[in-house]
Amino acid sequence: MVRLITHNMLACHARNCNKDNFPLVFSDVELVVREAELNPDFLRRFLPKIDWAALVDTARSLGDTSLPDEMPTEWSDEQIQQLHHVLLEMHVEEGNMTCRGCGHIYPIQNGIPNMVSLTGRHS
Fold it and tell me: For the chain, which domains are there?
């Protein structure tokens, strides 16, 4: 499943694409919410790896506005729950991820992104 925790680490790797290749932009998305067990310690350890601006923009593009513009320095239980929901419970089942730089399209089918296919290469 494409969860935002994974999406936040994906960049376009098409040949000669090295500008504006992160984050990939979702389109034609079928979004499913699946409950997952909350693990606050894992989330706190994972925080330094997150590109916060990309995460917030992507979550908002999928209709979730629960995350603040800036990453909190101190986390309340409610904020940890919101982060957990965005990172681990929002699943993109179907759709596309498109590179802003080169327009390469990465299709998502049955929750699995095809990061190697060159079909449907540009929008």
Answer: 2-113 (2.20.25.10)
